[in-house]
Each structure stands twice: as C-alpha cells, then as structure tokens.
Design a protein that fits this description.
alpha/beta; Purple Acid Phosphatase, chain A, domain 2; 6 helices; 23% helix; globular; disordered N terminus
Length: 301
C-alpha cells in the first residue's frame, strides 16, 4: 500500500511540473525552423472536435508561429467527408503556419481516396529544407499495426543510404518495435516487419524517427528513446485526441542553423504549458537551414 501511495505521489508531482520553451531571441527568425509535430486528431463524435480546436487556439496564443507542421496520421476517425476536411483546413489557416505535411494512419485508410484528394499529397514522399530531409511513410491499410509494403521500404532504404550527408527525419504512424517506446509492448502499436528498417538504421544514420498511434500521455519521461547502439532518436508525438488518461498535447521541434542541438518540447494544450520532459538532442551534424522553405522533393515521388 505504501508503494502505491508513493507512486501516486510521484506521478502527481511529475505531472504537475511545467517549464517554458526557450527560443534564442538573438537568432534571426530565418535562421530557425520551428515545427509543430502532432497526430491522432480523429474525433469520433462531433462534440470531440473541441480537442483540436483547443490545440489550435493554444498554438495561436504562443509568442511564436511555427514554420511547419507535421501530422503523423489519423487525422480523421473511420469516416471522412468534405465537410470534415474543410473544418480541418479552416483551423489550419488560423495558425499562420504556412507548410503542412501529413501521412495517413490506419483510421485514414477507411477513406483513403478522400484523404489523398483533400491533402493533395502522395502517400509516401520526402520534403527538403536545407540539409534537413523528411521522409513521410503513410500506413497502407486499416489494420491496427502499421503496414508498409516492401516496395515502399526499398524506396525509403535507398533514400536513406544515398543521403547520409543530410539530417534525416522519418515520419510514420506507428514506431519500430526496436525503438523500445512504451507502446511497443503492444504488437498492434508497431510497424509490421520492423526488422527491415532496423537493419538499415544500424548501419546508416537516421537522426530522428517521429511516430504516434498509441494515445499515451507525453509527460511520461520515456516517451522518447535512443536504444543502445543506435543513433536514432525515437519521438512519440501522440496525441491530440483526448482519450482515457491521455490529454490534448503535441510536440514542438526547434532546429537552429549552424547548431547540432535539436530542442524538443512537449506541450499540454489544456494546461497551456510545456512539460518538464522537454529536452535537447544532439543531431549527427549541424543544421544548414538559412531560411530555405520546406518543399516536397519531386525526384523521390
């Protein structure tokens, strides 16, 4: 009984901790790339739309405007319509964020044609921004665990091998099994046949792997992980959708030109503060950004 009470006290103390995101005001805005990374919006009912509306309103209240947004899947629940997507697009406009890049999650695959038409993007594509290379890999089925075909895996593999001079960030809906994130204890929360990807990143550098899908609270300290003998930071950015004990939250990533330090900050949009689990991660090389706008690479489509 004492142990349970101690754990409860520890969790309560930790969950109540907050911090402020520090952005160097001496650096020109054109020298900094701020990314809003979030996922799993998927309102099941009309009244749950307020989850994303809360998040958008909170982002608008920040003293900075992110340059780019990454949405790691499950934008809708299991059905979608033009009315729903118009609601999403109207909310996006309110943020002032110019560049939006997303992938399809398993729920989006229930109406993948509407997803593709409304986003106007391929299911698998890359985005370049200076020496930052983002690889976006959509889930390909409605199944709970993320399915990525062998053809798409080979496409990803060739890009990774041939761009080792870049800082590579991969975005998938679920994480690799070997990432050791909490959610990987459940087989439905991983990428099927993760070994294919793991065998590549053991020999080639992928700096950051962004995933979602699990709806676990981001204030848990082990929401991000760098397994032994691996140079990849695995970051779980789930989720906007408020479910069970998971609040409305997301992550902010700050890349600064000329620096190899990546600042990662988790934020509660309900409490309107950054969690104390925010941290800095050293990338494999310095960022060369210089205000280059993010753009989809035509050569890798």
């Amino acid at each position: 009984m004492k142990t349970n009470l101690f754990c409860l006290l520890l969790l309560t103390t930790f969950f109540s901790c907050s911090t402020e995101l520090v952005i160097n005001d001496k650096v020109e805005p054109s020298e900094t790339l701020i990314i809003w990374a979030h996922s799993d919006i998927q309102p099941r009912y009309l009244w749950e739309k307020y989850h994303y509306e809360y998040a958008i309103d909170d982002v608008r209240s920040l003293p900075f405007v992110p340059d780019m947004a990454i949405v790691a899947g499950d934008i809708n629940h299991r059905q979608s319509s033009d009315m729903y997507w118009n609601w999403i697009k109207d909310l996006r406009k309110k943020t002032g964020i110019t560049y939006w890049y997303e992938i399809a999650g398993n729920h989006d695959n229930h109406d993948i044609e509407t997803y593709k038409r409304q986003t106007g993007k391929p299911l698998h594509y890359t985005v370049s921004c200076g020496n930052l290379l983002f690889i976006f890999l959509s889930d390909e089925t409605k199944k709970a665990n993320t399915i990525i075909s062998d053809d798409v895996f080979e496409w990803w593999k060739n890009i990774v091998i041939n761009n080792q001079d870049s800082i590579i960030i991969t975005v998938t809906h679920a994480p690799l099994f070997q990432s050791q994130l909490v959610s990987t204890l459940n087989w439905t929360m991983i990428i099927k046949d993760s070994d294919r990807f793991w065998n590549v990143i053991k020999d080639y550098t992928v700096d950051v792997w962004i995933s979602a899908h699990d709806h676990l609270p981001g204030m848990i300290p082990i929401k991000y992980n760098t397994p032994d003998n691996c140079e990849t930071l695995f970051l779980d950015v789930s989720s906007i959708h408020k479910v069970r004990f998971s609040p409305i939250e997301s992550w902010f990533l700050i890349f600064q030109n000329g620096s190899s330090s990546l600042q990662c900050a988790a934020r509660s949009h309900e409490k309107r503060y950054f969690y104390s689990s925010s941290f800095t991660y050293e990338l494999s090389k310095k960022v060369s950004y210089k205000g280059n706008p993010p753009a989809i690479d035509k050569k890798y489509q």
